[in-house]
Structures are given as structure tokens and as C-alpha cells.
Amino acid sequence: MTSMASESVATIVCTCKQTRFDIATPDYRELDVEGLNITVSSGAKAAAKGKSKSKGEGIEILNNAKLRLKAGQRYALVGRNGTGKSTLLKAIAEKLIPGIPEETRVVLLQQTNITDENLSDAKDYSRSSNTGSSGLSVLEEVIERATARQEVQREIDVLSKGIESADAYGALRGLRKFRYNQLQKDLFLKDKDARLRSGARGMQARKALIAAEKEVAAFETIYSQKNEEITSEVLAKETSDAADMLAELELQVEPSKLAEVESRAKKILTGLGFSDLYMEKEVSSLSGGWKMRTSLAAALLQDCDILILDEPTNFLDLFGIMWLQQHLTTLADTPEPPTLVLVSHDRDFISLCTDLLIVKDKDLTYFHGDLPTYESSRAEKKVYLTKMKEAKEKQKEHIQQTIQKNMKEGKAKETKTRYDRLSRGRRSLTIAGVLNRADIDIPQDERPVSFVLPEPPDLRFPGALLSLEKLAFRYPSNKPGKTVQPLVLKDITLSVNMGDRIGILGLNGGGKSTLIKLLVEETKPTSGTLSIHPRLKLGYYSQHAVETLQQMGIGEQDLTGLGLMVREVSGELDEGQLRRLLGSLGLPGRLASDTPIRKLSGGQLVRLELARILWKAPHCLVLDEATTHLDYESVTALREALKSWEGAVVVVSHDRWFLRGVVEGLNDDQDSDLSDNEENEIPRRRVVYRLKAGELVVLEGGVQQFENIMEKRVRKVMNS
């Protein structure tokens, strides 16, 4: 079976083995698809051929994989950037994979790029009405996504107008207009479905489209009937049907039912950081981050069988992340919890998942448990298989020595017996009592992700790199004569020395980004002083860095990462040095020199931005949410690189695991053997600050103390 989605840029082609469904009612929360192949190829070529792509055409994402989701389980979809995670999610959500029943209700929250207004797109693929309406407040938008309330109300208005009309044919006309609109919507969906699919499923979709077109054409004849052509029996029946339909629709917007939905919506929005005032703001007036949170709230409010969340923690602060973690966990207590598929680089956050779904080598593998357990079990398995292979090699060597000895001594029978054992491999090995009949295949690790940070040059004389003394900041008043704006930051005193590790935590809107802009001199303080070491080279990663690079790529369609670097270094490094730098950060060869910036993934753009910072060999790195677009392996690599780097690091991040490693120097069980070379290092100053109400306070208990504070707040909100 084959299915295909054509787009202006690319086509997703899905094939799998024929699936036979049970006669019993299926559980739409489950998927079980054998022999799944997914290829992304040129939309134009695929549309011309209208069939599955052969090998070598397009990019193959999966090859003969098994897609298996169990009802109510929570899956963390993990894999390196570029392995096709988002493509797989889209194929599931749009039901491009043959074997996914059309009745399955799928809600997808998927990250989009800057060309889509830099927003998340939360789509309910189970319902025809999903688009938001202009002018709606946040609360109205979220409720509309979940209930299609406005659309239902429009249908009620059409019927009511007819029924309440003095015209005897008013109710009939209202009902026929309602039915005609419904048929038009159904025709639109059938047409979209036919264009998305190919193969056997495509043929079935095209037959359904033809049938829908005939039904619309037939109804148009009825719809255009004149009053005198309508019999009294038809008039009486359709007048009665109109009243019944009106009563059915009114039940959907019954005040008590809508009040329940509104109450749930408010709880979700509060958990995601919306105040009552912000809930009443028009969606169109919000920033990209708040629009993303609105989409996330809409996705969480909708009833569905499969809930897919692609990086839902982007733009959330730690309170929002911990609330979402708790909310998704408590879904398990509902009568029929949706099956959750989650993509996130935040290792602490994905600990809520019961299972891992791993995309690797164009295949899907499964693990029941969390990520640390999986990594530990892989390491243990590799050690176990290595020992078995060594034992087998020793056994072979022993048998070969015995054969040679028997041959020298002329013992033909013993030689033949030993030779048979060696050639057939039937000797039972003592390790775990396993009868080993074949060569032992030790799984090879992928080439590890790594970040190589250049060591900073000598400062020549000592002193603080950055020093803030009693610094304060307020935004200027927008209009002359208006009252003075309140202080955003007040009495900030902070010093950053070589080798320091400083973490800054706080809720969104608390002034973290403002403080960072003051540190890097993008903003001037209202009062107080900022002192900078005269030889300081500063590297600043902005939380908007990826969006800035995407805008560059849109403005200059052919600009590559290497081309941008050549332009910016102005001859201070030659092309070979730039290629080595880009390669050390994960942008090797043609990816750097031939691929336009506009085609790079979010994770690749992070690497490019780091190259723009690191070529100057800075003494201090100021990182504002640098992990947002990276996969978890890249986050791990960046964490390890920063832990041992000689320069100073100031980090703003909501990723608890990342902060614990970079700022507090903590190690996981998996890397503890790499670990504590810190005894041989120059002692580092490690400080975690909380920025609250404009004031900077040291957290003596570090990241865990802040997490404990947020946990109490989350419990309070969940129980309210």
C-alpha cells in the first residue's frame, strides 16, 4: 500500500505491507504497521510520477520499519537532527501511512520555521474546522479550536433564521442551506484527501471524491427547487427535521458544557503562564512565543486518540515545563488516555515518558524505560557482547592450537573432531551458558556528536572579565509627560571572572534577557556601572539567533554557512581554517559550502551561530537558551564541551539537566568515569542565581532549590 503527500517543496511518500484489521472495533489509540517505508522527495517529480519513489530518488527516512504504538503509552521520539522525526510525525498526523484508520483523531503540535511566522502549528487532523478566527482572544481561540463553537453557532443562526421566519418555507430553506454547506465541507476534505494519497489508497480516495461530487450535484437540484415544486409532505418533514437539527446543535453549545470547556481551558492557560489579562488579549497581538503557547494550550484541550507534541517546551519557562510535565503524566489517570508521542531535547522533561521510540539507521526501535536506563543498558550490552566475543576468540585460538598439536603428533581422529567444532562453531561457551553458533556482532556506536571549543587567549593581566555594580534599568516612557516606568532590574551586582560558571534562572518576563543585553552592551543601564576587561573577547548566543539566521537565508537565497563566515571574518581566517571550525561543530564539507542557510535545520543553524561566535576565541560565553533547537545528543556534547572549557560561561536556560552539568559540574552515571578531573583543574566559582522582581539572588541549593520552588507552585496550580 502507498500513500503520498504533495507539497510545494517536498513530497512524503509512505508505503507499507497490507494491513488486515480485526472485525472487532479497533482501538484508535494504537498503531501497528509492518514494513513501513518513508521517503521525502521533490514534490514536482513525485506529482509527475504519482507513485512511490525508488531507491536513490529523494531522501529515505525509514526502510522496512515497524511502527507500533500501544494505547495510552507515552513515547519519547528520539534521534539525531536530520533523521526524519518531524517527517514521521507529519506522516502519522496526516494519516499518510496506510494502516492508520481515517477515524483516528490525531492532534499535532509541530514547530515551523520563520517563513511560517515563526509559530507552532497545532493541528487537529480529526476535524474539518481547525483554523483560528481573526480578532479572537487567547481564551476564545483555544476554546474555538477544541469545540468549533463559532462554526456551530453559525449553523445554529442559519437554522434559527429559517425556523423563526414568517415564511412557511423558511425552516426548509434553512435546513437545505445547512445540508448544502455540510456537503461542500465534505467535498473539500475529500478533494484534499485525494490529492494527498496515491496507490490503492489514492484510488479509493478518488472514488470517494467522485461520489461526493455526484452527491453535491444531485443536492443542488433539490436546493434550487421553487416553493411550488415542493410537496406538502416534504415541507412538513423537512420543517420537523430542521427543528430536530437545531435542538441537536444547541446541545453542543449548551452553556453548562461550554462552561466546563472554558474552565479546563483557563486551567491549561494558567499552567502555561497566561495571566487573566493575557487570556483576554487578541491572539494577533501576541509575540511568536506566546502564540506558540496558545497553540499548545489548544492541542492539550482537544479530545484525541493520539497526541503528538514536537518540542512543546520551546518558549516555556521552568514553571511551564514542570506544569506540562505533570499535566501529561496525570493524563494516565483518565479513563482512556491518549497515546502520546513527544519530541524534546530536555532530558529531565522526557522522563515523563514510559517508552522510547528511537529513529536510527532508517529503522524504528523500541525501549520500555527512560533515556538514562536505555543508555546504560546499551553500554552494558556492549560490554557483555565484547566479553563473549573475546571468549569465543580465545576458544577458537585454543582449538586451532590443539589442531596444530594433534597434526604434529599424527592424531587424525582428534584433529578431525577439533576441526569440525571450529568450522561449525558448536562448542558451548561458559558465559551465560549460551550455545554460540555464529559470529558475535557487537553494535557499533554512531560517530559521537562533539563540539570543539577554542581555548581563549592570554589576558596578559588579571581582573574581572565583566563587573556590574549597583546596576538598574527601566524602559523609557513611550510618551512625553507620562509617569516613569517601573524598574525592570534594580541593584544588580555581579562579577564574571575567568573560568567562572554562572547560571541565571527565573520565570519568563522576569528580566533575564534584559540583564543579558546589559552584560553584552546591547542595552545601556539606567544607573550603576558596567566594567569590562580591556582585552575581553565576548561570545554572545542570543535566544533569537536561529530566527535571525533564517531571515538572512530568506534575504539571500544562495548564502551558505561558509559564505557567511568568509564574509564575517574579513580575512582573519582562511577558508581551510573556517572549514575546520565548521566541521568541528558539526557542519562538515558540502553541508557548510553548498547547502544554503535557508535549507539548514534548526540544530545546524545553532552550530553555524556557534561558529560565528567561536572563531574569535572568546574569553567568556554568554548563552541565552542555546539548546532550544538541538537534539539531545548535541545538548549532551555541548554540555561536556562547556564543562571543561577554560573560559567563563554565563548561562540562561530552562534545561535543568544542562545547567546542572555546565554550571554545577555534575556528572551522570554514564559519564562519571570521565569525570572528576576537576581535582587537577583550577578551582572554578560556580554560582546559580535567581532573578525575581528585578533582583538577583544567589540560590545556595542551586538548580534543585529553584526546581523545588517551582514544584510547589505547580502543585498549587494543579490543585486549584
Automatic annotation (TrEMBL):
Kindly list any coiled-coil regions of this protein.
374-409
An example molecular function term from Gene Ontology annotations: ATP hydrolysis activity
Q: Which InterPro entries match?
A: AAA+_ATPase, ABC_transporter-like_ATP-bd, ABC_transporter-like_CS, ABCF, P-loop_NTPase
User: Which CDD domains does the entry mention?
Assistant: ABCF_EF-3
Q: Where is the ABC transporter domain?
A: 33-387, 466-696
Question: What are the alphabetically sorted keywords of the record?
Answer: ATP-binding, Coiled coil, Nucleotide-binding, Repeat
Task: Establish whether keyword Methyltransferase is in the entry.
Answer: no
Which SMART domains is this protein grouped with?
AAA
The domain of life is Eukaryota
Enumerate the Pfam families for this protein: ABC_tran
Instruction: Report the protein name in the record.
Output: ABC transporter domain-containing protein
Q: Which organism is it from?
A: Neoarthrinium moseri
